[in-house]
Design brief:
Strand content: 15-25%
Largest sheet: 7 strands, mixed
Number of helices: 15
Oligomer: single chain
Bound molecules: dioxothiomolybdenum(VI) ion
Number of strands: 30
Strand order of the largest sheet: 3-5-1-13-10-11-12
Length: about 750
């Protein structure tokens, strides 16, 4: 059972820090929670996409007549009759306006690209209709493999980070090293497969649109739709109370979501479009494969003299998104010479996109593997090598860290795991069944960011309150933690605070992404709550009839539904009494989550952690099982320890997935993905995850934002995959540099 955290900086009596269970839990387990596909407006039609089976070329023929001849089919949407868009989906007015295939021509740019949408009275009829289209193509030979074609230098990587960054001179650093290591690691393409596929239920009323769709950024979705359909944003309402996972693929609208809206416009009736599982492999984004070369130099005692990290990755033929593996080496280990660079090649694939810990996840597995290889060269314990190169300040910029409890993470994780008992040499441990046991570790890190958001708080005379913001809960816990933060700001128990989220009719809650959602939404909510309390205090402290008269706004504190004088806590008044005397039924205020703090320039801001892994490997069959994972993480203030642990577990499990399971395999001739289903595209199941522990390490950060929140959604993947790769080496003595590590690679 998660206990309440009692970090020194947690406020006594506050709902912040309480392990409250998910407020949306009962609705989810009873089925009362409505996801997009559960929405069934009157007169609903069903749409099914037909997608391309070639990767490059054009659609020469679709048997539209055959599909239209199906008794249940209402319409077939193709480039010939698709609604005209007010703005080309290839027009890029900002780097995150990804180019989308929305039936604007007969070209095919990747396998799995939507080429038509069949709209029918039933899902079955739409499915049959789509099959009747029997497309014929004019096909060209696609380029699919990473590294094929011209090398390019990306204009930027990830979410707009510099392509190259470094300090010192790598060659000089290598020249003075006693030990050098150059190693190339590969990571596989991973395709977004949230439990809930991308879907939409769209309904037009003249030029007004109501859209149910899973989105990590409802207001951004609204703005993009306004552009495509040439209507004012105010005419559009986007609703998403629950997402069955987002992980970056629902940050920005994908083709299936918008095609549903177009289909509804075409037929003038509400339309539901749900992406089929195999259609997730193409139009909704993926994590691109990478080939990373690490060039390290160190003195005999383990001090790094050179740290080079070069990444080759892949983008689509028609758009730009580059996996930013090099970011991690820009701040994690101290070295007088650091070089982080990226190159890319284009391929006839869908455009890659953000996927949980984009850049950092595959970057971390390469960096942590390379450090382990260096530790072996130097005959050092892997943890000792990391401590030896602990970055006291951000190595490239020299900025101090706003907070960094990584040493405590290393220590607490090592203690809990029993790291001190690890033999240095590989193949030393076996269990009673003769399985090889290996122990490995890795450092976890992810930036602490913040974006802009807005919220509204309303205090009612009955001593309850309402918090409203369009924030999205994709499973990470916004439904719960934003209420906790609101309650803290209002001086109310969380049970007396109602939260409304997931609707663009509410104030713009910003984006749930980049591990910034709780900081952004939380600051907006807290500021709104504080402003509402200030309004209430103004009513009381200026009223001679109030016991708070003359105390001034700063002279009262909100506590348990009352405003209390700081100079005399026996004198107080309830929220209801104050409002009643003022002749009001409520008081409301707005608040902002102000985006990046000014202190960002002065401080490097990152969350950190240390992950320790145990694996067992069958010496004859090469079968690998993770048997223990211990992560210790420091990410500023913990709003809800139960949900924070849950986030760490989820991240660490994805780390297992990255290290051992996920691998989208392309047929290089056709460009199709050969394992486009969840039977053959492997993700961990319960049997793969026997024991995961997450330790919450105390950290107080006065700089990231006034609440001290760093964000916990993505860091768990980092560190974990490297720890597992290193544990596999420790078990077997075989270093596999091709991720995921599968048994064939161990036996080869
Ligand atoms: Mo995250 S990859 O920003 O949803």
């Amino acid at each position: 059972m998660p206990e309440t955290v009692s970090f020194a900086h947690q406020r006594h009596g506050s709902s912040i820090g309480q392990p409250i269970t998910r407020r949306d839990g009962p609705d989810k387990v009873t089925g009362a929670a409505r996801y997009t596909a559960d929405v069934r407006p009157e007169g609903l039609l069903h749409a099914v996409m037909a997608v391309s089976t070639i990767a490059k070329g054009r659609v020469a023929h679709l048997d539209v007549a055959a599909a239209e001849g199906h008794p249940g089919v209402v319409a077939v949407m193709t480039p010939k009759n698709a609604p005209t868009l007010a703005k080309s989906p290839d027009e890029k007015d900002n780097p995150f306006a990804f180019r989308l295939d929305l039936l604007q021509g007969d070209h095919v740019r990747y396998a799995g690209q939507p080429i038509a949408v069949v709209i029918a009275e039933t899902l079955e009829a739409a499915t049959e209709g789509a099959a009747l289209l029997a497309p014929r193509y004019v096909s060209e030979t696609p380029v699919i493999a990473l590294g094929e074609g011209d090398l390019l230098t990306p204009p930027a990587v990830g979410a707009g980070s510099p392509t190259s960054e470094g300090t010192g001179d790598l060659e000089d650093g290598l020249a003075v090293a006693d030990s050098r290591l150059t190693a190339t690691y590969e990571t596989a393409a991973q395709y977004h497969n949230a439990l809930e596929p991308h879907s939409s239920v769209a309904e037009w009323d003249g030029d007004r649109l109501t859209l149910y769709t899973p989105s990590q950024a409802l207001w951004i979705a609204k703005a993009r739709l306004a552009g495509f359909f040439g209507i004012p944003p105010e005419n559009i309402r986007v609703i998403c109370h629950y997402l069955g996972g987002g992980f970056g693929s629902k940050g920005f609208l994908s083709p299936p979501q918008i095609l549903g809206v177009m289909a509804s416009k075409l037929v003038g009736r509400p339309v539901k479009l749900v992406t089929r599982r195999e259609q997730m492999f193409g139009p909704v984004g993926h994590r691109a494969p990478t080939r990373q070369t690490l060039t390290l130099g160190a003195t005999r005692d383990g001090a790094l003299t050179a740290f080079g990290h070069h990444t080759l990755t892949q983008t689509s033929s028609y758009d730009d998104f580059y996996e930013a593996c090099g970011l991690i080496a820009r701040h994690l280990y101290a070295s007088p010479a650091i070089s982080t660079t990226h190159e890319g090649t284009r391929a006839d694939i869908g455009t890659p996109i953000f996927m949980r810990a984009p850049g950092e996840a595959p970057g971390s597995v390469a960096v942590e593997s390379a450090l382990d290889e260096l530790a072996l060269e130097l005959d050092l314990d892997p943890l000792e090598l990391r401590l030896k190169n602990y970055a006291e300040v951000e190595p490239i910029t020299g900025r101090p860290f706003s907070s960094k409890a990584l040493r405590e993470c290393y220590a607490q994780g090592a203690e809990r795991f029993g790291w001190a008992k690890r033999p240095k040499a590989p193949r030393q441990l076996r269990d009673a069944d003769g399985l090889l046991i290996g122990w490995g570790m890795g450092t976890a890190t992810y930036p602490a960011g913040m974006m802009q958001g807005e919220a509204r708080a309303t205090i009612h005379a009955d001593g309850t309150a309402l918090i409203e913001t369009s924030a999205q809960d994709m499973g990470q816990g916004s439904w719960t933690v934003l209420a906790q933060i609101g309650a803290d700001g209002l001086g109310l128990p969380a049970e007396r605070v109602t939260l409304r989220i997931g609707d663009t009719d509410l104030p713009n809650g910003g984006l749930a992404g980049g591990s910034t959602g709780t900081a952004t939404g939380g600051m907006a909510v807290h500021n709104a709550a504080s402003s509402a309390i200030a309004g209430l205090a103004g009513l009381a402290t200026n009223d001679p009839a109030s016991p708070l008269y003359g105390a001034g706004n700063a002279g009262v504190t909100a506590r348990d539904g009352r405003l209390v004088r700081n100079d005399d806590p026996t004198r107080s008044e309830s929220f209801g009494e104050i409002l009643a005397r003022a002749g009001r039924s409520s008081i409301e205020a707005k608040g902002q989550g102000a985006g990046e703090p000014a202190s960002r320039k002065a401080y490097a801001m990152h969350a950190h952690g240390a992950v320790y892994a145990e694996v067992k490997v069958d010496p004859d069959l090469g079968q690998i099982r993770v048997t223990r994972l211990v992560g210790a993480f420091a990410a500023g203030r913990v709003i809800n320890p139960r949900l924070v642990r849950s986030q760490y577990y989820g991240g660490m499990i994805w780390g297992v997935s990255l290290a051992l399971h996920e691998h989208a395999v392309h047929d290089l001739r056709s460009g199709r993905i050969m394992n486009a289903n969840l039977a053959e595209y492997h993700v961990p199941v319960n049997a793969d995850i026997p024991s995961v522990e997450a330790i919450l390490v105390e950290e107080h950060d006065p700089h990231v934002n006034p609440l001290g929140i760093k964000g916990v959604g993505e860091i768990g993947i980092t560190g974990t995959a490297g720890a597992i790769a290193n544990a596999v080496w420790h078990a077997t003595g075989v270093r596999v540099r091709e991720i995921p590590i599968t048994l064939d690679k161990l036996l080869g």
